[in-house]
Amino acid sequence: MNFKKTILITGGAGYIGSHTIIELLKTTEFRIISIDNFSNSSIKTYDRIEKISGKKITNYTIDICDKINLEKLFEAEKNIVGIIHFAAFKSVPESVSNPFKYYHNNISSLLNILECCLKFNIPNFIFSSSCSVYGNISNLPVKEDTILGKAESPYAYTKQVGEEIIKDYTIAFPKLKTILLRYFNPVGAHSSGLIGELPIHKANNLVPIITQTAIGKIQQMTVFGSDYPTRDGTCIRDYIHVTDIANAHIKALMVLINGSNKSNYSIFNLGTGNGISVLEAIGAFEKISGQKLNYFIGDKRPGDVIAIYSDTEKSRVELGWEPQYNLEDMMETAWKWELEQLNFDKD
Ligand code: NAD
Ligand code: WQD
Predict the structure, then answer these.
(1) Cβ–ligand 1 contact at 38 (below 6 Å)
(2) In the annotation, is 155 catalytic?
(3) Theoretical Cys-Cys bridge with 188: which of 148, 210, 241, 258, CB 3.0 to 4.6 Å?
(4) Binding site membership of 37 for ligand 1 (Cβ less than 6 Å)
(5) Residue of 46, 102, 155, 239 with catalytic role
(6) How many other CB atoms are there within 10 angstroms of residue 124's CB atom?
(7) Which of 286, 187, 278, 273 is nearest to 231 (CA)?
(8) Prior bond to 141 cis, omega within 30?
(9) Pocket of ligand 2, candidates 155, 217, 230, 278: which has the most ligand atoms within 8 Å of its Cβ, to mutate?
């Protein structure tokens, strides 16, 4: 048995989980274990984490919806002091075409893991939420206490419901301390270029589509609409580097573990607070890569909000967190990661 204080990461082989593990290994003394069933990731990610950090991760290949096997993990691992729950499905269009998949996976896994927190006395819990909980909102920048709009997809609804479930648990069980982090648009990759967002499914998000177009996996990309009421007619988003997101989890974890949380249920936005348009994002990519991107202006994408960006005051003041990476860093690391994937077969 290992007696070191342990942090359990769910979805540790995934995009944000893997970057968070690297930062945890770099800046804390905790033992890190992960649960991942590789439904949207590869086991090879752990080799790459080891290459970057020099440390090996124990992974439990369990579906978190399988409560019997999940409880076996908690029976074996007696020193878990905190959980960061990343594991979920995250594709907005897939959630529209297959809502059962999303309601089942995202909600059952959350309920199971919360029940384990109670049964095995694990007090500290961090949840991956999303700016998609705000829905289509016109009052910008959005603050954590902004009244949420209607969820625009089953995926977004799983995050709204997930937040409410956690709130109800903290009311019923005051020993449970939780932080919910609402990520805006996480992009980029680790500075080594060795890990990033794995392209297991067709890319839907802007930055992977930009890098895949530049490398030739996609012939030509579409800018979805250019007559929005914004400074250049394209939609505005709050892109945030994945390593900044990872570091916010460490701040949140320490706030919970040190007991400096103001409430047992706290929500924080994770964004830079800067709104960036689609054409500005493309321009930043062209500048750092030295390539002209093959794109055309097409129709609007149904369901897109015109503009959204975060108010960052609460996370700055209460978590002591501030993003360190700018838009160029985001594009540069995303591009490095795209180029690294040419080496994949050599792994
Ligand atoms: P990801 O798909 O890369 O990682 C999720 C990981 O969880 C994957 O490795 C997957 O295999 C695993 N997983 C999923 N369901 C599981 C289950 N039932 N049992 C075991 N493992 C399971 O996604 P990500 O981008 O790293 O996102 C992490 C979290 O952040 C998710 O909850 C997502 O909804 C949320 N989020 C992501 C973004 C984004 O743009 N990436 C934005 C806002 C919120
Ligand atoms: C960004 C901008 C597109 C692709 C999604 C989820 C949200 C959260 C973050 C998880 C938009 C434009 C895109 C393309 C384009 N994820 N675009 N051409 O929609 O802001 O948010 O990721 O929680 O829930 O909905 O991100 O990267 O898809 O789009 O012009 O080929 O890029 O119209 O304006 P989005 P995105």
Answers:
(1) yes
(2) yes
(3) 241
(4) yes
(5) 155
(6) 23
(7) 278
(8) yes
(9) 278
- CA-nearest residue for atom 27, ligand 2, is 205
In one-letter notation, the amino acid at residue 232 is D
Sign (positive or negative) of CA dihedral 36, 39, 40, 45: positive
Which atom of ligand 1 sits closest to the CA of residue 159? 34
Tokens of 347: 């792994």
**Neighbouring-strand partners of residue 7:** 32, 82
Count of positions (residues) in the chain: 347
* Residue-wise pLDDT tens digits, 110-131: 999 999 999 999 999 999 999 9
Q: Which own/partner pairs from 343-346 qualify as long-range (CB within 8 Å, at least 24 positions apart)?
A: none
pTM: predicted TM-score of the whole model, two decimal places: 0.98
Checking if the pLDDT of 288 tops 80, the result is: yes
With CA atoms as reference, report the closest residue to 207 among 86, 90, 58, 333. 333
Q: Which two tokens stand for residue 12?
A: 């540790």
Say how far apart CA 132 and CA 258 lie, in whole Å: 30
* Across 63-74, average pLDDT: 98
